[in-house]
Write a structure and sequence with these properties.
Strand order of the largest sheet: 1-2
Order of helices and strands: HHHHHHEEH
Largest sheet: 2 strands, antiparallel
Helix content: 55-70%
Structural class: mainly alpha
Strand content: under 5%
């Protein structure tokens, strides 16, 4: 791909991340509020971005870019999948440093007392409470582990099967996020006195969070791409 096309692709990806992330948050996390207050949709300065929405935005933007420039979509998707874990890992470390997207309360020795609201008013805990550093759990799974798996795939010639790296990334992220959600504090919009874990399906004790609900389709779609890629003969070059 020519250098100019790479810059154009990055522009499409950035737009996809921002628009998809914001619209995903609106649709998946607080649709009722934004339907009643549509002017708030553009208030990104007040926070509210969704990874799953951003991912869909990048998929759509990349597909349009490929159609526009005659580039094989799966080959480009594989390349983006291999590069993405680095950014995910660094992003989660930044979340940890900024004390955002913290985990549920814990008494484990590696629990972290985050500043501000995170340390206050934890049910059943007197004084300041420690929380799971779920941002680092995600950095380890989505960034380091998934990145190493994809690196091994590249070194073993996995890119000769278009869609394989994409499938492993999508399923791998979905599995990683599903696991970490057991330790991550659910969005405050879903937490009530009767539902302290913020489950959106199931009961207050056994159920799944919105993050897990959105990750399940990613796991299935990713596995679908893996099966598709493995059933087709490898390509040369």
């Amino acid at each position: 791909m020519a250098p100019g096309k790479v810059e154009e692709l990055l522009t499409w990806v950035i737009v996809g991340v921002i628009l998809g992330g914001r619209l995903g948050f609106v649709l998946f996390y607080d649709l009722g509020f934004y339907l009643a207050n549509p002017a708030q949709i553009i208030r990104v300065d007040q926070g509210g971005m969704s990874f799953h929405g951003g991912f869909l935005g990048v998929v759509l933007a990349s597909w349009v870019f490929c159609r526009k420039n005659g580039i094989p979509a799966l080959r480009l998707a594989d390349a983006l999948a291999v590069a993405t874990p680095v950014g995910l890992g660094l992003g989660r470390v930044a979340n940890f440093i900024n004390a955002e997207l913290w985990g549920r309360p814990t008494d484990l020795p590696w629990g972290v007392i985050f500043p501000g609201e995170a340390a206050q008013n934890c049910p059943g805990v007197e004084g300041l409470c420690a929380r799971h550093p779920s941002q680092l759990y995600e950095a380890g799974l989505e960034g380091i582990l998934l990145g190493l798996i994809l690196l091994v795939l590249v070194r073993s010639g996995g890119l000769k099967r278009p869609g394989l790296a994409l499938g492993i990334f999508v399923a791998g992220y979905g599995i990683s996020r599903f696991i970490v959600e057991f330790f991550r504090q659910a969005d405050a919009r879903f937490i009530t006195p009767d539902n302290p874990l913020g489950h959106v399906l199931g009961g207050p004790v056994w159920g799944i969070t919105r993050g897990q609900e959105l990750s399940l389709p990613m796991i299935l779609i990713g596995l679908g791409f893996v099966i598709y890629a493995l059933r087709r003969p490898p390509v040369s070059g």
